[in-house]
Amino acid sequence: MSQATQPETKGIQLSETALKHLVMLREQQGSDLCLRVGVRNGGCSGMSYMMDFEDPSNIRPDDEVYDYDGFKIICDPKSLLYLYGLMLDYSNALIGGGFQFTNPNASQTCGCGKSFGV
């Protein structure tokens, strides 16, 4: 019996729309940057999402690195405890548009969608 190969499951999922938008934003920065995703204390629900472009030389040995066709997403291990399974999407909608976080670990989210509680 042969087993079908399962696609690699990444701790942080990225929609095709979000990937295209991130690649466009990275090109505007003019260099080969990666995206750091994490959490910090604060926000309406207790913790807020953070993400920013970062030089690949800043990747630490304990960071998780996810590669999407050459675009790298990095996350520190402490943040990954709260973000594992996160789906990052992007919408062009005039109201409610922008990056959207769907986090299976969140027990509550705020109205803006940028913070959560566990």
Give a structural overview.
It is a single chain. By secondary structure, the protein is of the alpha+beta class. The protein has one domain: Sandwich (Hypothetical Protein Aq_1857, Chain: A). It contains 2 helices and 9 strands, in the order E-H-E-E-E-E-H-E-E-E-E. The chain is globular and about 35 Å long. Pfam families: Fe-S_biosyn. It comes from Spirulina subsalsa FACHB-351.
Provide the descriptors you would attach to this structure in a database record.
118 residues, alpha+beta, three-stranded mixed sheet, six-stranded mixed sheet, Hypothetical Protein Aq_1857, Chain: A, globular, 2 helices
What is the CATH class designation? Mainly Beta
- Main structural class: alpha+beta
Rg to the nearest angstrom?
15 Å
Total helical elements:
2
Domain Core: 12-114
Pfam family, one: Fe-S_biosyn
Organism: Spirulina subsalsa FACHB-351
Protein name: Iron-sulfur cluster assembly accessory protein
Overview in brief:
The protein is α+β, with helices and mostly antiparallel strands and 118 residues long. It has one domain: Hypothetical Protein Aq_1857, Chain: A (Sandwich), CATH 2.60.300.
Question: How is the secondary structure organized here?
Answer:
Blueprint: E1 12-14, H1 16-29, E2 34-41, E3 47-54, E4 64-68, E5 71-75, H2 77-83, E6 86-91, E7 98-102, E8 108-109, E9 115-117
Parallel strand pairs: 1-6, 2-5
Antiparallel strand pairs: 2-3, 3-9, 4-5, 6-7, 8-9
